[in-house]
Design a protein that fits this description.
alpha/beta; Leucine Aminopeptidase, subunit E, domain 1; Aminopeptidase; 2 domains; nine-stranded mixed β-sheet; six-stranded mixed β-sheet; 20 strands
Length: about 500
Amino acid sequence: MKSFGIRNFSAKSPPEKKGLLLGAYTGDKDGEIVFTKAAQGIDNECQGKLAQHIEVAGPGLKQGKCRVFYKLHQNHDIIAIVGLGKQNLTYNEMEDVDEKREAVRIAACNGCRTLQDVGVTHIYMENLGEPQCAAEGANLGLWLYQENRSPENQVFIPQVLPFEGPSEGWKKGEILAEAQNLARRLQDTPANLMTPTIFAENAAAILDEVGVVVVVHDKAWAEKKKMGSFLSVAAGSEEPPLFLEITYNGGKPSDKPIALVGKGITFDTGGISLKPAGSMADMRGDMGGAACIVGALTAIARLQLPVNIVALIPLTENMPSGKATKPGDVVTAMNGKTICVDNTDAEGRLVLADALLYAATFNPVLTVDLATLTGAIIVCLGSAASGVFTNSTPMWKVLHKAGTVTGDRVWRLPIYKDYTNLMTYYRSVDINNIGKDKVAGSCKAAAFLMEFAPKENWIHMDIAGVLGPSDYHPYLHKGMMGRPTRTLVEFVERLPGSEGFPS
């Protein structure tokens, strides 16, 4: 699990075969194409044969589509041309995304997959006008989880190299893609091979390589801290719960840290409130928040971002047994608040409650939690965006901008007092973990967390909808998606000096 790269070296390598990937824009006239600078240079070198063959192959070159040509250039036996769409693409308010950057990611992915299909082992790719996005699309698009297939059945993943040289943007794109691929790898690993203990071991080994310190706290430590809410979820499992405390010091010693909190349920049966069997296997990815934070921290450290971060990850399984928490049980969180657990499948908020309270002891400048928290967010947003709840509009604006740049979008939802009232209107306890009425599940979950979160500069990201598995995202193979790792990194990078970010 230590490797950051996307290539699987245990797969049998085919004979070396090189290919060149170039780009072309859609022109103003029907069927017209406009080569990128790199593509035009290659076309000049082969006396216009590239343009001629494209014209013979059919009019135009649609955005994201790819064509492959052979023996046109003396130094490049295989040349692929991929469509980038119009040259003037920019931010689309309705789609809430930078369409130019997304077009490059999709083109890079499709072009690389096309060359992979024809047996190319080394892809030399131009930057397509956006070197960071080109590197992201290529490296995200080729990676797939195949850890448990025998070598002879594994798909060989080509190596992608920058045709115009490794610019800073290209290197950053590789780092970001590798961070997301790491999150995907953690999420997609079967639960018997990714227990709390194994996750902790992997996180410690991976983050140690980039100079990030990981301290692993055990059950006795959590008991001493009186984390009754977190420990109530762990009660039904034979696997011991763990609590990761991760420190990255990239800023000044006097700078207050950013606190990142990630839900780390390595498998979620629902507990006594058992989930339906049909999609339960997908719950190996219920530690998506934890996985994204580990992935993001590798990128943050490799990019040497000038911030201090403390990341907190409560790790446990949620299992049914004779020792498991029962519906109707009352547990006590670290701050003394009592919680009636009416549904043991609403466990994510229980582990996050104590983690948020512990985060406050570090006096953070900002607290962000990520969790695959509610099925309701899937009903609301699908996989188009992560749901965001926050008490800081300035911080929301920074996060929103980050999502438009990365293409991994976020969308703000409300936390009205109405939702808090539905969670706290009980005479016998302070709060209920599912609350009154079968409405607004994601909003009520956020209202629950708000009872344990800071009164300002707090962001909750419900990422259940962007977990996966999905097979219709352009540059991700079917499987867990590792979202929103790149958005989290982009957000952290934009924070210093941003409006509303406390010094």
